[in-house]
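Before the break, one more example. Copy the sequence into your notebook; we will annotate it together after we see the structure.
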Amino acid sequence: MKVHLRTVLVLSLMGLPMALAAQASPRPADLVAEALSAGLQAEADHDGPALLRAAERLDSLGAHPEAGEDIAAYWRKAAVGLGADIRTTVSRGRTLGPAYSARDVAAMGRFATHQSFNAGEKANIAVVSPGGENLQLSVLDDDGAPACRQSRVSKRISCTWVPLWTGLFRIEVENAADRPTRFYLITN
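Here is what the structure looks like once it is written out:
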């Protein structure tokens, strides 16, 4: 029995560094959220080089808009207008990967959309709000049961979970503020 317990202990300890590394590695939606936050701050500061770095970071992550304006392309043009040297960077073509979209939600209102996620694969959704409004992010499965819920006054919130089955999940962003707000929704 001692040999069996020792073997179990050794095998458990062997897997510990991999488990810790998996927890420490950033998730794609969080990386895109960081790039969007940096770009929004650079835009507010009228910092051309920082704006260009944020645009290139979005490109390097393979992030693309679900619909509408490509904010990385917009930031690249704005950065040049602010004196950034576009020749110092290399653009990459976009590939399928994390996606983002700019959304608006009314005061005390709710935005909702549906996204499909694969069973057994880690799902990650992030919300970036330039003003750091009081937003709540909820993800519900097709039965209406919560898969993830986060609420805080912060410029960025995220939810991560592993779906048990492939299917549509409802994503809700609620605005508890008494004024409308714009946010970016990022999915992996």
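The mean pLDDT is 76. The two ends are 45 Å apart (CA to CA). Try to locate both features in your own notes.
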